Amino acid sequence: xxxxxxxxxxxxxxxxxxxxxxxxxxxxxxxxxxxxxxxxxxxxxxxxxxxxxxxxxxxxxxxxxxxxxxxxxxxxxxxxxxxxxxxxxxxxxxxxxxxxxxxxxxxxxxxxxxxxxxxxxxxxxxxxxxxxxxxxxxxxxxxxxxxxxxxxxxxxxxxxxxxxxxxxxxxxxxxxxxxxxxxxxxxxxxxxxxxxxxxxxxxxxxxxxxxxxxxxxxxxxxxxxxxxxxxxxxxxxxxxxxxxxxxxxxxxxxxxxxxxxxxxxxxxxxx
Length: 271
Ligand code: 2HA
Ligand code: ZN
Description:
- This protein has about 270 residues and is of the alpha+beta class.
- The chain has ten helices and nine strands.
- The chain folds into two domains: about 1-115, Class II aldolase/adducin N-terminal domain (L-fuculose-1-phosphate Aldolase); about 115-270, Class II aldolase/adducin N-terminal domain (L-fuculose-1-phosphate Aldolase, 3-Layer(aba) Sandwich).
- Dihydroxyacetone binds near residues 30, 31, 32, 116 and 139.
């Protein structure tokens, strides 16, 4: 038995939040992450079996009663998580009433889960209903992707086509394309519902003028997805800075060949 602080879960959270901060995706308290953990994977730790306190969550999470999530805290800074993991992260279990969580570890200064917990949990509900292997939900503020949401029509096909054509890797990593919701107020149940709905068809959703919301099997994969989308958005932004006129390009045929070579099914509506 060892303390949960020494677990791979906490170590990965420290690593990924630091990396995301260093990418300029998580200024101040921007961004949040949740990771679903199986009860069997918690049995090795000495300090996660008693309830520290109960925290109300303001919406109905009955579908995932009993599930465990390691989550970043509201108002906490990604820049600080690796130095203060026990203060800025919390391990919670959805309580029997479905409307609150039991805190089992962390949030030592009285903290609570991220303000975007509705969007995270609504997404986890849908993923778990579909028996998805995706356990990680990550939100952050990737600069170039946000910039594109000001200068392009907010159309999934348009965004997906542009991002696919910016580098050979894109269509292999996100063959579904990117989902887009309308601009909505963050932290609300409404943005949570709209986001969770999109994430049944896409792995990444653009929140216009705000950021990205993505899912993956683990922290590394989810981070890598956002990194790839943001890399494509950066290339697009630099092309625009160079004057915008392209004399060479990746064409539809190239995209079809890439999909065949890497055995992915591109979204037929977009190609
Ligand atoms: O966690 O990024 O969308 C702070 C935010 C809210
Ligand atoms: Zn945000």
